[in-house]
Specification:
heterotrimer, A mainly alpha (183), B alpha/beta (420), C mainly alpha (233), A: 183 residues, mainly alpha, 7 helices, globular, B: alpha/beta, Rossmann fold, six-stranded mixed beta sheet
Chain lengths: 183, 420, 233
């Protein structure tokens, strides 16, 4: 039996983080989606999503961790819509690629924060491109600056969420539930 | 069948040994009770026997455990699980499917049992535990006792020679406890090797062939005398603090839970609500605190109607302590939790001392044992000096010593004219 | 949204192969994005409502009300923006297809059926198991979140402003809940013999049959009709 890339505990942890992302999304999305403001759902969801993602990445540490969590989450989202599956996966691939090139894993504090923020920021353009592809008449009337403002909002909220996640990770460590590396 | 040699274990950052030089053997066909107070190392011993220590839990380990002459620490947990089945305390966390037959099949799939053998094994296992009628039922619709039966069936289907049961009675009502022990007794008489970890010696003592008593991580031959819990005496009842008047309530898409329920709890009275799991005890308390609203009838909690009073307002007068303390713990230290809404500093200090929490002030509440967490939530509630206390299953996870602390404090409150 | 939690073989829809249902759901979702003709969307939505009725999925009055409200809000906002009722009708119908296509088909598939079907793909066993865990433990975690909210209701405004209370009273306990669930579930999985790299057999693997072919044809018929209305008429 060859040694697995991920242990049982790591798969379970990734699953539980995905479940937490789902809990948060199920609370946030029904309120923000009907308003149909580009980026609003992503910005609000990003605040909480990056919170849990940072905790997940700090715990898993290995290259591929972001893709593992977002891959599982995207497969769950497939039962909602293939479009959601696509842009969640694209966001995960984008964040994972950049972080693997820059940091080769998620050790320390900077890499997890970057991973979480890049994932949230990567999802929005992917969602917009896919939406524009399928519904061009709806999006071609929107001025480009709206998308820039939306992306800045997503960056801000996901960064805040990620930093709060770091704070909670320290508390988890103090309670003996998480081992932190001193960077 | 099981042998330990000089087994010792210490968790990281803990100054004392959780297990200290344990040496014992369990022969095939024996049923052994491992008892001891909360925190004595029972569950840790169980984790060592099944190999989760050291493979899944870190710590300083020495000594040896042999299961069927195989060294547990040198093989994967899965290999040990082929010989040894472990029923964990939280049965719901050990179930991974929706249906009874699927749940039993789950373990068979993990061990690559051929598909053509599965149905036969599922049928036989369910017959052994008397759960054949449950085969097509959804696990979520089963009672806690039925779920445990199904998990036992899952272990029997794998033909595991040794069964380890970790505090199986913790979440069962009295009837379910008796039924479960009857089942364990039947399995024991069939010659199964069973190791039962349980501090409720009074409930299980007739079934095992012998007992190992753990205290501070070592085996001792001196068993403590059974704790006598004194009856809580009431003073003359005065005003009503909780009144249910012809209350009717039903959960969505379910049969009515309460129909014309009426009762009264007066000042200085202590009332025990007894009932099987699912009978509505927790729901009754949630109704009293305004967390859910009645369908018909009226409730008065400390003079307020929960239907048009916010739960936060009611919580200033009445304290509701949840069954699972984790849901109510939210601050970073024990001291913060107890002092957060305390009437004053002295109140917080005295309740902390009364609950045996002195020395734990700066600990994170989540790092405590279940019994300690429960006492933290109770101390936090008492420090607010409430007029009414609603305690949901306060004895779960508590050994006799911890429970005696709680009951002693409740006695003082109930039997004193000015309790605070 | 979540796989079925009722009897596995309740209706013919429940007995379909998970991949048949997934394929139809994906096709309808993507087609709905490409179609603008409200009649074409109505045909697709009609097919999904038929599937809903065949699967005997019953929604409560409250759920119907929420869905109707949601779609009405979308209609009104679009009407205000476009001043065209035809244009405004397109979006609620499209949403209706989204709300029904994948979720109904997921709701009629038991988690074990889905994971058994997925285990035949190239997905690692650990990922397939992770999906099962999310489906299995999401309701439990939601229940824990509900209890945390109840505890927060009892605390009221103690402990600072709304963001602070939300952070301390919900996010932090939920983070601890994730860690604790991980420890317990990992223990339970390993004790049940699961290892990501080990082979597993399959009890009652899903098998495609005649009903899958019929279901596929009917779905293609509905999709074809919608396409004709959009591009052919």
């Amino acid at each position: 039996m060859k040694k697995p890339l991920w242990t049982t505990r790591e798969y379970v942890f990734a699953a539980m983080i995905s479940a937490a992302l789902l809990v948060v999304a199920s609370i946030v999305i029904p309120f923000t989606l009907p308003l149909r403001i580009p980026g609003l759902t992503n910005a609000v969801n990003g605040l909480f999503g990056s919170f849990f993602l940072v905790i997940g990445l700090i715990r898993l540490k290995k290259p591929g961790s972001l893709l593992l969590i977002t891959g599982i989450y995207s497969l769950i989202c497939l039962s909602v819509s293939p479009l959601v599956f696509a842009f969640v996966l694209i966001g995960g691939i984008f964040g994972e690629t950049v972080c693997t090139i820059l940091f080769k894993g998620y050790h320390g504090r900077l890499a997890p924060v970057c991973g979480a923020v890049l994932y949230e920021m990567g999802m929005f353009p992917a969602a917009m491109v896919l939406s524009f592809f399928f519904l061009p008449e709806r999006y071609q009337e929107l001025a480009p600056w709206i998308f820039i403002v939306a992306e800045i909002a997503i960056f801000t909220t996901s960064l805040i969420g990620a930093l709060i996640g770091l704070k909670v990770a320290r508390e988890l460590s103090r309670a003996g539930r998480l081992q932190l590396e001193e960077s | 069948m099981i042998r330990t040699r000089d087994l010792s274990f210490r968790y990281p950052d803990q100054p004392v040994q959780t297990l200290d030089n344990l040496n014992f053997a369990i022969a095939p066909g024996e049923t052994v009770l491992v008892s001891g107070p909360t925190g004595c190392g029972k569950s840790t011993l169980g984790f060592c026997l099944c190999g989760t220590i050291p493979h899944l839990m870190a710590g300083t380990l020495s000594g040896e455990v042999l299961v069927n002459r195989k060294p547990v620490f040198q093989q994967a947990v899965r290999e040990t699980a082929g010989d040894l089945g472990f029923l964990i305390q939280h049965v719901a966390h050990q179930m991974f499917t929706e249906q009874v037959s699927e749940e039993i099949a789950f373990g068979l799939e993990n061990f690559c049992i051929p598909e053509e053998q599965m149905d036969r094994r599922i049928t036989q296992a369910l017959e052994l535990v008397g759960a054949s009628p449950l085969r097509s039922r959804r696990l979520a619709t089963l009672s806690a006792g039925e779920q445990q039966r199904v998990m036992l069936a899952a272990m029997l289907a794998l033909e595991q020679k040794i069964l380890i049961l970790d505090e199986p009675l913790a979440y069962l009502d009295r009837t379910a406890q008796q039924q479960f022990m009857e089942l364990v007794s039947n399995l024991s008489q069939q010659g199964r090797t069973i190791v039962l970890f349980e501090h409720r010696r009074d409930v299980v003592h007739q079934v095992p062939h012998r007992e190992l008593f753990l205290e501070n991580g070592t085996l001792t031959r001196s068993y403590p005398a059974r704790t006598r819990f004194h009856r809580i005496t009431d003073l003359s009842p005065k005003t009503s603090e909780l009144v249910f008047d012809r209350v009717c309530f039903s959960r969505p898409k379910a049969a009515p839970l309460f129909c014309d329920l009426s009762f009264e709890v007066r000042q200085h009275q202590s009332v025990v609500l007894l009932g099987p799991n699912g009978s509505g005890k927790t729901t009754l308390m949630a109704l009293a605190m305004g967390l859910i609203k009645v369908d018909q009838g009226s409730i008065s909690t400390c003079g307020y109607n929960p239907k048009n009073t916010s739960p936060a307002t009611l919580a200033q007068l009445a304290a509701f302590i949840f069954q699972h303390p984790d849901h109510q713990l939210y601050l970073p230290t024990v001291q913060d939790e107890i002092a957060a809404r305390a009437a004053d500093r002295d109140a917080a200090r005295s309740e902390m001392a009364a609950m045996g929490l002195a020395g734990l002030e700066n600990r994170h509440p989540r790092s405590l044992s279940t019994g300690q967490k429960r006492r933290v939530t109770l101390a936090a509630a008492l420090a607010r000096r409430p007029r009414l206390l609603l305690l949901d299953e306060p004895s779960v996870g508590q050994d006799d010593h911890s429970l005696s602390l709680v009951i002693k404090r409740l006695m003082t409150i109930s039997s004193t004219a000015e309790p605070f | 949204m979540f796989p079925a939690s009722g009897p596995v073989n309740a209706t013919v829809i429940h007995r379909l192969h998970p991949f048949s249902k997934m394929g139809v759901g994906i096709l309808f979702s993507i087609l709905a994005l490409c179609i603008e003709n409200p009649w074409a969307l109505a045909v697709m939505l009609g097919y999904m409502v038929l599937v809903l009725c065949t699967a005997r999925i019953r929604l409560t009055t409250r759920q119907w009300t929420m869905i109707a409200l949601f779609l009405t809000v979308i209609f009104v906002l679009d009407f205000l923006a476009s001043q065209s009722s035809v244009h405004a009708a397109t979006y609620p119908l499209r949403f209706g297809v989204f709300l029904t296509a994948m979720p109904i088909l997921a709701a009629t598939t038991a988690p074990q059926q889905m994971t058994r079907a997925l285990s035949r793909t190239a997905l690692p066993a650990g990922v397939v198991m992770a999906l099962l865990l999310v489906w299995r433990f999401f309701p439990l975690m939601t229940e824990e979140a509900r209890q945390m909210r109840q505890a927060a209701m009892l605390r009221g405004r103690t402990g600072g402003n709304l963001p602070t209370r939300f952070y301390r009273g919900f996010l932090v306990p939920l983070a601890f809940c994730v860690i604790e669930y991980t420890d317990r579930i990992t223990l339970a999985l390993e004790l049940r013999g699961f290892t990501p790299s080990a082979r597993r057999t399959c009890h009652q693997p899903p098998r495609a049959g005649v009903r899958d072919v019929i279901f596929g044809f009917l779905a293609m018929g509905a999709a074809g009709s919608a396409s004709f209305l959009q591009w052919g008429a």
